Amino acid sequence: MSDVDSSKDAFRKKLLEKQKEAKIVRKIVLTVFIVLIIAFSGIFGGGYLYIKSALEPVDTEDDTPVKVSIPIGSSVSAIASILKENHIVKDDRIFKYYVKFKNESGFQAGEYQLNKTMTFRDIIASLKKGKVSQNAVFQLTLPEGRKLTEIARITSSKTSFSEEEILKKLTDKDFIDSLKKKYPETLTDDIFQENVQYALEGYLYPATYPYYKEEPTLEEIFEPMIKKTNELVQKYYDQIEERDMSVHEFLTMASLIEEEATEKADRDKISSVFYNRINKEMPLQTDPTVLYALGEHKDRVFYKDLEVDSPYNTYKNKGLPPGPIANAGEMSLSAALTPEETDFFYFLATPEGEVIFTKTLDEHNKAKAEHITNQE
């Protein structure tokens, strides 16, 4: 064999080897590609199947009632975790993302009877409507115009807590600070102003509150009352700003109207008297503030009482007192923002519950002489 033939043969062998190597590489690449496709298909397919399964009821055959407790102030994440722990949903993260994707909100605290056959839509509907598992164990009714000390007494009569324990909680700075973090627009730093007697005075909304536990904590008892006040503050917030008032001033004015109003009273007119006096830099001279300063209830305020030395005494101090003197209902809250336009500067509540409005001190004194007797 010539040298030329040997070279050609060697070249052919190298070419065949390279072709063989290339073929092997192509097979490896193809195999790897196929494996990756299968892997990704498995991942995505498995993910899809997992999510699809998580969205379905836990068990379509098991409708055994499960008692689920949703605490006050629970976040969506917390609710999802509770549902997962009670085997009402398969995956708490999927439930949480579903709620956010659907932009659902307004879940209510309480004791619920849920079951494993429920869909996400059923669960959400129950939590939003507040379909609880049982009637309230007890209810607590706060009438309008009640002071913090009276609220402590009412609460004590319905629970195992003493008035002292309740007042200690309602004046506990750590508790109040925890509420401030949850409701910052309502519970502002104004509640800690100098001379404010009780930081939460006037912030516990008068209503009937149901409780679904035999022995709820004081936190669970009082937070719904603050939450309700917060809801109403949000409702009136634009009007509060338009009047250039703080929330604290708004609730303070409403409390004065509440305490002066009788069942037959026109709260908008009472409100107008207070605003007219403030605009003229006249003291408000409202008896309920004197009684608050005295710390006692009286059917009648005597002239000697008007001398009490207190920043709450609106006979001695101009403008609003340091803070609310009682809780106010919505009629008084509304009146605090919508006073009637009048030129009245005085009003007098008669023993019959009528309220007489007058423009001058002479007219006021005549009305007093006619309707109020035995004054000291």
For the terminal residues, how far apart are their CA atoms? Answer: 146 Å
Strand content: 5-15%
* Mean pLDDT across residues: 85
Radius of gyration: 36 Å
Side by side, the strands of the main sheet go 1-2
Give the number of domains: 3
Query: Roughly how much helix do the residues carry, as a percent range?
Result: 40-55%
* Main pleated-sheet profile: 2 strands, antiparallel
Nutshell version of this structure?
Belongs to the transglycosylase MltG family. With 376 residues, the protein is mostly helical. It is 51% helix and 7% strand.
What does this structure look like?
The chain is mostly helical and 376 residues long. It has three domains: 64 residues, 2-Layer Sandwich (Dna Ligase, domain 1); 101 residues, no CATH class; 100 residues, no CATH class. Helices cover 51% and strands 7% of the residues. The protein has 13 helices and six strands. Strand 5 and strand 6 form a beta hairpin. It is elongated. The chain starts with a helix and ends in a 5-residue tail after the last helix. This is Endolytic murein transglycosylase. InterPro entries: MLTG-like. It holds the Pfam family YceG.
Topology, element by element:
Elements: H1 3-54, E1 66-70, H2 76-85, H3 92-101, E2 110-114, H4 120-129, E3 138-141, H5 148-158, H6 163-170, H7 173-182, E4 208-211, H8 218-242, H9 247-260, H10 267-279, H11 287-294, H12 330-337, E5 346-349, E6 355-358, H13 361-371
Antiparallel strand pairs: 1-2, 3-4, 5-6
Membrane topology: Single-pass membrane protein
Main location: membrane
Transmembrane segments: 28-51
